[in-house]
Amino acid sequence: RSLGLTHRLFSSSPTSSYTNANLPTTTKLYINGEFIESQATTHYDVINPATQEIVTKVPQATPQELQEAVRSAQLAFKEWRRTSVLTRQRKMLDLQYLIRQNMDLLAASIVQEQGKVFSDAQGDVMRGLQVVESLTGIPELMMGNKLEVSKDMDTYSIREPLGVVAGICPFNFPAMIPLWMFPVALAAGNTMLLKPSEKDPGATMILAQLAEEVGIPKGVLNIVHGAHDTVNFLTSDPAIKAVSFVGGDKAGKYIYERSAAHGKRAQCNMGAKNHCIVLPDANKDHAINAIAGAAFGAAGQRCMALSVAVFVGKSQEWIDQLVEQAKKLQVNGGMEPGADLGPMITKQALQRAHQLIESSATQQSASVILDGRSVKVEKYPSGNFLGPTIIDNVTKDMSCYKEEIFGPVLSIVRVDTLDEAIEFINKNPYGNGASIFTRSGAAGRKFQSEIEAGQVGINVPIPVPLPMFSFTGNKGSFLGDANFYGRSGINFYTQLKTVTSLWRKDDAAVAEDSKPSVH
Ligand code: NAD
């Protein structure tokens, strides 16, 4: 069943800041089961990165609206925590069905606001959908342990929800990341305030309506908008027990510290610099295709995008083939047939990528062997496009290496041995993902055990674990201890209660004696 959703999610009567009736609509808040117009005085433009059209305006929710959202979540928690785990399992079964039915609607919203190509946008939804599917196993995920610890004495643990929790999302996966958060929190019995990125809230709004359609009660999920003010509220309000964040380093560190200072648990997934190693014994065509897809797909705006390829010894002879492969990729608007990568999110992000490429091209010893800066996309002349770019002979001190570019830019490092390659990668402060291309099981195993990255790929360029596991970035890419989704995600959103009980066998006789007489 596909829903005719958009009319409820956006207002057609702009707020006082926008008096011209032809201006775009504003995105609504979702508080206590109602899609409501914010009384905000500040709004953020959501700009289609391919066309520069303003798609909608996102309100900075007022303090009063944020208070209302948290109050409604507190009230809703009283009932929601008492729903049976089977009821919550059923909601997840229904939600995954509706997401699947509305996949193209969600993907189209992502293309419009975020810019990625339609097939990538479908993948964005699919990866989030898989989390919801995994939550249909919530009864088993919520199970505790039990042990007879002494004569007549048992200790058992119960997983209980925390209460009201909050989620703060980045722009780059508008469906997947909200789906890493709210279904897990809700299935575990919590209620939530979720803040999508102010750059692309559309997919979250559709998901909120799908949650309503499956009967998630009012107040259990609330969508609040805004930027810093909303983040400050979510990380300090005493009713909020835990904060999930995915985004960049600056915001992540701030949110982690501020949440901790206010006594909340926090999980913060942050930036990355993901490397791969190419050994000369690798399957050449597989490695080259995989690297091109992982470096330039989604315009490099994936936290697990491959941004550094370390070519060992003779594999350096394949770099020309990688350049040829990258040249074949089609840069275009996300809905155009055959498009491989779309625009970057903002003009500022594009400009920053240009500067980082420029710094390596002019001031440093590296060479730009494929330069995407002059790419022209006829149909979208004002889009934020950057073509695939490859910088060769990159060293660890260059700014194009030290900084996360978050665009379709691949740095190439040349070394002589596998040991040198591993040592080079381990010196990087980030630890999200790393992969190796080789036909040698021994080399793959050595890499797996020596590499300091949380998600390791062997002949797999973007090793993001499916949700029966968890997303396990580490080092500078993560703050906290419980990871997103999987068992670890459930641990984050629950606390353990351990009960020790003594039921003396001798007392059973008393129970016998006190049975009511049947005569
Ligand atoms: P961002 O940090 O700019 O924004 C993320 C969220 O934080 C947004 O909701 C935003 O409103 C808020 N925010 C931004 N700056 C803030 C500040 N100074 N104080 C308080 N709140 C602030 O990130 P982004 O540009 O939307 O997303 C891209 C980043 O996210 C990249 O660094 C990417 O690597 C990272 N990311 C990481 C993962 C992961 O799992 N490790 C996944 C996706 C994206």
Automatic annotation (TrEMBL):
Hydrolase listed as a keyword: no
Xref: Pfam families: Aldedh
Listed GO biological process terms: L-valine catabolic process; thymine catabolic process
A GO term for molecular function: methylmalonate-semialdehyde dehydrogenase (acylating, NAD) activity
The entry's keywords: NAD, Oxidoreductase
Location of the Aldehyde dehydrogenase domain: 35-499
Enzyme Commission identifier(s): 1.2.1.27
Keyword Cell inner membrane in annotation: no
InterPro entries from the UniProt entry: Ald_DH/histidinol_DH, Ald_DH_C, Ald_DH_CS_CYS, Ald_DH_N, Aldehyde_DH_dom, MeMal-semiAld_DH
Gene Ontology CC: one annotated term: mitochondrion
Family: Belongs to the aldehyde dehydrogenase family.
Name assigned to this protein: methylmalonate-semialdehyde dehydrogenase (CoA acylating)
Source organism of the structure: Mycoemilia scoparia
